[in-house]
Task: structure prediction
Amino acid sequence: MKIRELVREDIRDLVPYEPHLFSNVVKLDANENPYPFPKAVIEGIWARLNGDVFTRYPDPAGMELKAKIAEVNGVSPQNIVLGNGSDELIQLILQTFGGPGKRVIIPVPTFSMYSIHGQITGTVPVEVPRDENFGLKLDELLTEMRRPDTRITYIATPNNPSGNCVPADEIRKLLTEVESLVVADEAYIDFGGETCLPLLEKYPNLIVLRSFSKVAIAGLRVGYSIARPEVTRELLKVKQPYNVNTFSQMTALAVLNNWPVFREQIEKIVSERERLKVELGSIPGIRVYPSQANFILFKVPVPAGELHRQLVEEGVLVRWGLGRTHGLPECLRVTVGTRQENDLCLEKIRKILIP
Result:
């Protein structure tokens, strides 16, 4: 029996996600918060723990967490769907509104999971190249978005891996010109850029995605979408009932209830980002791209894969293999770490490039 022959033909050649694990390295590859989770917040979470957290199913609606998210964002709980990370919501939107015979439009380069989730759901991914500065080519984008079989367009702002933002006025233009859904993925919005959330009042075809992973709890996987109630109702028909576990809901709520503590960490990251951009840019041969996220994309004067390998040998892990276009094969992406981590990264890059 050949199991492969039983697999759907359209996903048969997908490659499973296989992370490369490295030991004894400073980890600056995954866009995580480098600072420890605050001890006082952990103690508050422990105080709420009881046996029911582990033996009972979680609240399928996540009402307490949704109420707090709604309060923070000035919306109603009816506007919100919780996800096991925003990854789940990316796929949920495609399951609900995409499918065979439908298209999803993706300005590239960007987060690779938009295209992968498109394939998984049988939705046809259509890639539209960004310009040389990673901005949107609005006319080309609108040409694809206006086709009747287009259902969804994903726009990351700030974008990964480039770090640049899409102006809200450009999102507004897209929303005005089409009747399909526009998803503004704001996973990195806490580090910079202009949110599209105010556009929701006027445009029913907007969905905004947010994530707790970049600022606090990447290990617990909590994200959420904000959309009109008529959109949210459709998503809830497809969502798994117990998709966000009780402990994750409790911890995400604790993050929001202690937001000033995490705001301080974010401010440190943004400050270090600006310092790191200047220091990287001072190294001969390196080109640094503008970033409003918690990472920096930079082009290197030597083969990027070789520099990546040498940095790993020196105890620093950054991200390589970011795409095939826009000069990305010549680029690396570094997460903004603590000051000590960033200094070590700079020291090792200088050691390799300026022997």
Summary: The chain has a mean pLDDT of 96.
